[in-house]
Design brief:
CATH architecture: Roll
Distance between the termini: 30 Å
Largest sheet: 5 strands, mixed, barrel
Helix content: 10-25%
CATH topology: Hypothetical upf0131 protein ytfp
CATH class: Alpha Beta
Shape: globular
Number of domains: 1
Length: 191
């Protein structure tokens, strides 16, 4: 798997960020290196209730979160030492106020330019707080998730567009997510 890594990959860098959803195509922060990466122990799931970006209090939507179990292919970004505090503040503001995410440092394996798993680095990411059952719904079936996504719209647009954008970028990266394609078919009324 190649990702057009911009620069040499070095595990000696001190601060990496792992993106598994919109951070993959819209990180919103400067970075020195971007690489495809594998995280084990969590999987990408539409299980986080959104009341602002992709839904409202009256009609909540769902966004992606890292739920326990499995593995997740995404992107890792190496941040310059001088930018770490700025990037952390930006990410916390983006991810924490409206969601039940927990900031975590996790081990990820970076892919090299030939598509082979290479160096292991520690990366900052946000995982689902599965104890917050008011906002985190990890046990939803695809059919239940589709009901949320089909009807919700928030400040950043429709929940269905968020799903479509996620799938388009995963497909572009060569990341197969059959469950998300099945979810998209249900949202479109094809399933």
């Amino acid at each position: 798997m190649t990702d057009g890594t911009s620069g040499p990959i070095s595990a000696s860098a001190r601060f990496w960020v792992f993106g598994y959803g919109s951070l993959m195509w819209n990180p919103g922060f400067d970075h020195e290196v971007r690489a495809a990466a594998l995280l084990r122990g969590y999987h990408r799931a539409f299980c986080m209730v959104s009341h602002r970006h992709r839904g409202t209090r009256e009609v909540p939507g769902l966004v992606l979160a890292l739920a326990p179990g499995g593995s997740c292919l995404g992107r890792a970004y190496r941040v310059a030492d001088a930018e770490v505090d700025t990037v952390l503040a930006y990410l916390d503001d983006r991810e924490l106020p409206d969601y039940a995410y927990l900031p975590r440092t996790v081990p990820v394996r970076l892919y090299d330019d030939e598509g082979h798993l290479g160096e292991r680095v520690e990366a900052h990411t946000y995982v689902a707080d599965v104890r917050r059952t008011d906002q985190c719904l990890p046990g939803l079936s695809l059919e239940e998730a589709a009901v949320y996504i089909r009807r919700a719209h928030g400040l950043q647009g429709s929940n269905a567009d968020y799903l479509a954008n996620t799938i388009a970028h995963l497909d572009e990266l060569g990341i197969e997510e059959g469950r998300l394609h099945a979810l998209q078919a249900l949202v479109a009324g094809e399933g």
